[in-house]
């Protein structure tokens, strides 16, 4: 390089400039805020709040995982708590033994946990408030309930994350089989938030999970029928249900909890005995506080206090009263000043997907179900993969047995195992030989996995398994065991694949787990729930919100009845009486609403009346009702034409749309009807020749469909009808032809279908289709003639509503079948052909695929068997022979505790409760033990064990089967068939010609087995008709 070239010089280094270049200018407020949020979330996630899925905080979960690592199962020997705390601290929890041991102790205290998770031995404290012994003196192991939470942990059911020192991994959640968060509750204080979840009864919570599985749309009030409230391990009495409902509905509330007391009066002295104290109160501190209040004179009626508690009765405090003291006054003072009455905050705050959320009761149960679905799906995938791997190995072993000579020759000719493995993999096995080894079913699945070929070779895995075989495994017995194992693996794989392919099967497994928990671990409630409200409560809060069935008869008799009294029944029963009505006064309006809803009554005079549902007369289901004129100031010639339930009038953008018989519609803001007078207010101005047909509540963007008797329908946006005042007649909704009238109006739902019913029992379903955008609304046809947009094809004739309803559109069909949006006032489109076969349209209703259509006939169809002509078929003879060892005994119809217990078990096993209160003996009496005819009770026993009870009515010409209940855990299949055969035999012995099998519904597949008892007759139109083929009936 030339010396003339300039030599580059390095820039001078300035340390201050370099440091300044790396500095970031950040406001101190932002830095503090970010640091606070980071610390807060760290405390929330890793310490203070429980996970909604297993209800455990990280410290509790780590203790159970460490005990599981030590194999401290419920049947194992207990170990020192120092060992458990040390392993937990060393392997999982970084906060030291002194923090772990108090958590372990609380998980073992039966007065803190509804179902303890630690099986303790030693001094773990007491309800008196005494501290536990040191961890070196106490021993523990996992309880059966904790074992249910740890079950399937090793089956890849949950995710694992590294521990604090990254030497081990720990599960992020446990695959708990029950909602531990609700059962045992939780308490915790985080940064800026706190959680306080009371414990509940395990059986009630499991029944709530089953109810949610059966009805995902169930409300909180529906869940409260199964979970009435918290169930504290220390018992006590909860005052009022309003606060419980508020907590379950919103996730936040405060309940009042009182001690359970009794008053003993003697001629000389009166004393108050405290049997149970509020949750999280120490017995000795309660006693000290009461004594202090008596000494200070704040409760002057107490002369002495005494503690008579022992191991059998942990709480028994005796409060001796003075001679002139009133026990009720003293109790009120105790509730006011002492810990015998405390408030318990309900805050349903927990971690959902790692974030804190306040949940409702339904949301907590839904999150548990979601967790269990994930656990079951992952467990099934793990077992399926394991079964497939084992099946692959067994197939190789079976192949070796089938071609054993060639396998032995190859192995003996090989010098090393590696050479033998390669040689085995080169053996070409004919497909026919493999088919004999695996069987037809196994070979077909093998071909589906490996492909169809003439020859097959072994895989490396199969070759290794063959090389590990011993000479003892070559005997024929081992080959048979391998064949049986292969067949069993095929069944397991099919079962696991079916579970993964069907979401309903996963939910059935969750239901089965809950039913198992109810049967094995459920116990009675310890906490009583009183209807007495404490504090300032609104009148509406004092009235329990529940579903009510409101009915109004044609002559104006009204009543409300709790929907719960219309209990679900088994097939073949006589049903329950829904109302006592005269032949000329049928029920005209029937709907389900809530006690807290407002009810708007629209009358034939165009008026509207306003009333709360809970102000309607509540009567029994068979009552006729009270005259509505005594409730509403109706004119003599005024009658109710429609009703609508409204919860809140002040919701924005809600309107009432009314449709009249002459095709007029009127839209008015809902809030215009929020303050009616006792004499009613004008809802719509009706013309002389017109009447109100239907009323609907709409919001912005909704579209309505009007339907006429001649089968025409029109769909238009609610904005086409401008809002009007109450005292107006409205505008034209549909242009009716001569002689046509409007029969119905519904609000269109793009995801639903319109069900059109005709007078002769025929109907069809048509999808609404999407709502049109304002600019896409169809203009009215210039010719004014109806289009065929809504008409089905020639193959789409409406079907009878007694069979399956026709749906005139599927996912791939043309949009021309939908009700296109038009302008208001046109003639509409053809909805259904009103032929003489169909008759005119009588009503329309919006339905979803999950909805059910209820059909009520004027007379029930009763079936009977002619005994003299009956001959049992092969299946029935087999059922008779299988159960002939049972002993049957005829008894009079009277109460028997053993029968009642069996009845309760039957309702739980077969009907998840059946909608009945199992502890209500009155319902059992009314349902089964009251009869107006000669009735008998038949009990069936398997040796000494009661397994079934049947009730029959003795009629002049036969026996009538009323109801049967049995123990589902004892009774085998085909028991219903055997019961009918036994009753037929009784008819023959008594020389009675007929056996009546009760009501029969053709569409109910559960009743179809009755049609197998031929010859069978069905009562139709007051005549007995021979039923030879129930499918063609």
Write structural notes for this entry.
The protein has 1033 residues and is α+β, with helices and mostly antiparallel strands. The strands form 13 sheets. It has an eight-stranded mixed sheet. The chain is 30% helix and 24% strand. The protein is globular.
Radius of gyration: 37 Å
According to DSSP, the number of beta strands is: 48
Tell me the number of helical segments per DSSP (H or I, 4 or more residues long).
24
**Helix/strand structural class:** alpha+beta
Shape: globular
Task: State the end-to-end CA separation.
Answer: 112 Å
Strand line-up in the sheet with most strands: 42-43-44-45-46-41-47-48
Q: Biggest sheet: strands, sense, closure?
A: 8 strands, mixed
Report the sheet-strand fraction.
15-25%
Average pLDDT reading: 80
List keywords for this structure.
single chain; 1033 residues; alpha+beta; five-stranded mixed sheet; 24 helices
Describe, in short, the structure shown:
With 1033 residues, this protein is α+β, with helices and mostly antiparallel strands.
Outline the secondary-structure elements.
Elements: H1 15-22, H2 28-48, H3 58-69, E1 79-80, H4 81-91, H5 97-108, E2 118-121, E3 139-142, H6 144-150, E4 160-162, E5 169-171, H7 180-184, E6 186-189, E7 194-197, H8 202-214, H9 220-224, E8 237-239, H10 242-250, E9 252-258, E10 260-265, E11 270-276, H11 283-296, E12 302-307, E13 317-321, H12 327-337, E14 341-347, E15 349-352, E16 355-358, H13 361-402, H14 404-413, H15 417-425, E17 429-430, H16 431-450, E18 455-456, H17 460-467, H18 476-501, H19 503-521, E19 528-530, H20 539-542, E20 547-553, E21 557-562, E22 587-594, E23 598-603, E24 607-612, E25 626-627, E26 640-646, E27 654-660, E28 664-669, E29 681-682, E30 692-699, E31 703-708, E32 712-717, E33 731-732, E34 742-747, E35 753-758, E36 762-767, E37 799-800, E38 806-807, E39 829-830, E40 841-847, E41 862-866, H21 874-882, E42 887-892, H22 897-911, H23 921-929, E43 934-942, E44 945-955, E45 958-966, H24 975-989, E46 994-999, E47 1016-1020, E48 1023-1027
Parallel strand pairs: 8-19, 36-38, 45-46
Antiparallel strand pairs: 1-3, 2-3, 4-5, 6-7, 8-9, 9-14, 10-11, 11-13, 12-13, 15-16, 17-18, 20-21, 20-22, 21-25, 23-24, 23-26, 24-29, 27-28, 27-30, 28-33, 31-32, 31-34, 32-39, 35-36, 35-40, 36-37, 41-46, 41-47, 42-43, 43-44, 44-45, 47-48
Helix pairs in contact: 3-4, 4-5, 8-13, 8-19, 13-16, 13-17, 13-18, 13-19, 14-15, 15-17, 18-19
